[in-house]
Design goal:
By secondary structure, the protein is an all-alpha fold. It has helices at residues 2-23, 28-46, 48-77, 90-99, 105-129, 139-156, 167-172. The chain has one domain (2-169).
Length: 174
């Protein structure tokens, strides 16, 4: 059952990445399927209480980060603006919230920071290769690819758990 759910999550993540890279839009049905399968998979791993706790904690953390980005744009422009779909896509925000069901809060924040650095690195490389290309950044695509990599690492090293805050330090000391 675990392997089937993992393969389904990975397939949907791959489809989300492909859609975002090609069209810069993610179909709602993909997000719905991902939240159902990923949440059920995580429920089987950690139970209902922990899943609800981490989901709420991570949504609050994600909303806090979103508010910081919003405050940055308010300070930058000097006026209150709606940054959804102008600076950051609605699908990006929803995907961040969905992926938040798969981590402890500390690991979720580490995941986001590392993914944002990954996105920045790839975007800078793309700008160096194609300097005239001013397309938007496919954040949901990069989030999906990064989460796929994380899932691969977890399956390769079964002792790593994204719901355990000491996972990163345990992994570094292997």
């Amino acid at each position: 059952m675990h392997l089937v759910l993992l393969c389904l999550v990975m397939a949907v993540l791959f489809l989300i990445a492909a859609q975002d890279f090609q069209y810069r839009k993610i179909p709602v049905w993909m997000l719905i399927i991902l939240i159902i399968i990923n949440s059920f998979r995580n429920y089987l791993m950690i139970g209902w209480e922990a899943l609800v706790y981490y989901t709420i904690s991570n949504m609050l953390a994600g909303l806090s980060l979103f508010m910081l980005v919003w405050l940055y744009y308010v300070a930058k422009t000097g006026k209150i603006i709606n940054i959804l779909d102008s600076q950051i896509g609605t699908g990006d925000v929803i995907l961040i919230m969905i992926l938040g069901t798969g981590f402890s809060t500390l690991n979720f924040l580490l995941f986001l920071v590392s993914c944002f650095l990954f996105t920045l690195f790839l975007t800078l490389i793309k700008k160096m290769i194609y300097p005239e290309n001013n397309q938007t950044i496919p954040l949901a695509g990069y989030l999906s690819l990064w989460y796929l990599l994380i899932l691969f690492i977890i399956e390769t090293f079964p002792e790593t758990l994204l719901f355990k805050d000491t996972t990163l330090t345990d992994f570094l000391y292997l």
